[in-house]
UniProtKB/TrEMBL annotation:
Belongs to the glycosyl hydrolase 130 family. The keyword Transmembrane does not apply. InterPro entries: Glyco_hydro_beta-prop_sf (IPR023296), Mannoside_phosphorylase (IPR007184). Keywords: Glycosidase, Glycosyltransferase, Hydrolase, Transferase. It comes from Niveispirillum cyanobacteriorum. This is Glycosidase. GO terms for molecular function: glycosyltransferase activity; hydrolase activity, acting on glycosyl bonds. It holds the Pfam family Glyco_hydro_130.
Length: 374
């Protein structure tokens, strides 16, 4: 679909590296690989807040026959560089490198991600302020390779932000909380290894918190022949009495369909919000292509009292990657065909949807509400 208001609101050139949490610590030049996948919420003053993932990378990661990774070091309280011999790694994907050997995949990143609050006008179309003083960077060993992909939900009077914390210890979901949507405090690890894209519903059901989760793994059991479902990553559900301790639901959530490869891989997008027709869930489907694949945004409506019951889930995407939007920053592209929706807010007769575009920039789209009426 095409929408009248659809633009990039932030790109790498808008980030001031001198104000980065990494500034002056590495003894090497860095650049912004991407400013993307922003969490989205509305602040008490009516403005919008993007919590932008800033991926900061080395300008020359490969030198002296080694590839280098940035890491937060708990002992020194600083960011350091690790060097890996080139003969031990695979650098085909510009976002990471795989380390040879062992009975399972081991990787490290060519950049380190931190989170930057960016305040927008109420319609999301103008930048008001970039709050470098409130940036969130790694501060513990379990997030030594970065803090990624914020998703923000407001439940009652509390802003709750889930993030992905990356380290050799675990690939965990971490929770930050705020009373005003701008000043965040670390709460705790809430989901353990490789459970990504955790989205807390914006509201409770019968007093309980609900969330979408996406456990990952290298092995999935097959559905029987003729099943409408395809084996692979799916969007599961969990409930909690307090937003910290989560129990998986017995019933499945959203699953990839067997009749199409467009959603062969899927994961959560924006935190579900309640509409007159049920919980609106925006999620991403990935069609296999080359290394990264084609990411598109799809939508589903879930029953307001039982989110395991899917009421409506069209096969057509609502958002697709836009080469037209990225044309002005074509020289900075390192992946293509990716739109990764990460936030939604109500704006009257339409929704404001925030996405990452091409793992590079932040995209704002105004989607009329009638689009989501079954």
């Amino acid at each position: 679909m095409r929408f009248a208001i659809d633009k990039l609101i932030l790109s790498p050139d808008d980030i001031d590296l001198s104000l980065s949490p990494l500034a002056g610590q590495l003894g090497a030049d860095t650049f912004i690989l991407g400013a993307f996948n922003p969490g989205l919420t509305r602040l008490p003053n009516g403005n919008l807040l993007l919590m932008v993932r800033v991926a900061e990378a080395l300008c020359d990661p490969i030198r002296d026959k080694h590839v280098h990774a940035i890491r937060w070091d708990d002992d020194s309280g600083r960011f350091l560089l690790d060097a890996w011999p080139l003969e031990l790694v695979d650098t085909a994907d510009p976002r990471k490198f795989l380390i040879h050997g062992g009975g399972w995949r081991i990787m490290a990143l060519t950049s380190l991600s931190w989170l930057l609050p960016v305040e927008l006008s109420p319609d999301g179309l103008d930048r008001i302020a970039i709050h470098y003083d409130r940036a969130i960077a790694p501060s513990a060993s379990f997030q030594c390779y970065g803090v990624e992909d914020a998703r923000i939900s407001k439940v009652d009077d509390l802003y709750m932000m889930t993030t992905c914390s990356v380290s050799p210890e675990r690939h965990s979901t971490t929770l930050y909380c705020s009373g005003d949507g701008l000043n965040w405090g670390f709460d705790d690890i809430v989901l353990d290894h490789q459970n990504k894209d955790m989205l807390i519903f914006e509201g409770r059901i019968d007093g309980r918190y609900w969330a979408q989760t996406r456990p990952l793994g290298d092995l999935y059991f097959a559905y029987p022949p003729g099943s409408p479902w395809r084996a692979g990553p799916s969007i599961n559900l969990a409930t909690s009495p307090d937003g910290r301790h989560w129990k998986p639901c017995r019933r499945p959530g959203l699953r990839p369909r067997s009749g199409t490869v467009a959603t062969a891989r899927m994961g959560g997008g924006a935190p579900p919000i309640l509409t007159d027709h049920g919980w609106l869930s925006l999620w991403h489907g990935v069609e296999p292509k080359e290394i990264v694949g084609i990411y598109r945004t799809y939508w589903s409506l879930l029953d307001r009292d039982d989110p395991a019951c899917v009421l409506h889930s069209p096969a057509e995407p609502v958002l697709e990657p836009s080469a037209e939007l990225t044309k002005p920053i074509e020289h900075q592209l390192y992946v293509r065909d990716v739109v990764f929706t990460t936030g939604i807010v109500d704006a009257g007769d339409h929704y404001i949807v925030a996405s990452g575009e091409a793992d590079l920039a932040c995209r704002i789209t105004h989607v009329p509400k009638h689009v989501f009426i079954p």
